[in-house]
Amino acid sequence: MITEKVPEEVEASIPKSPGEEQSSSCQGLDALDSMDIETMTQKIRNNCIVMIEKLHLEHLIETKKGQGGR
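Above: the chain sequence. Below: its structure as tokens.
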């Protein structure tokens, strides 16, 4: 039989009881509710455009009419 010690970080993230599991999932949902999804989406898109430009792959970017690139 193989036994492996679970790192403390992983062990701490494992819920101990059903009530604790529900509490952690509620905390996750609360965190999602408090996020500004539109702002996060725009930041991710802008970061992707910057990475594409740094890799000299601008020709792969499709622009929507009226946006003029970025």
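DSSP finds three helices and no strands in the chain.
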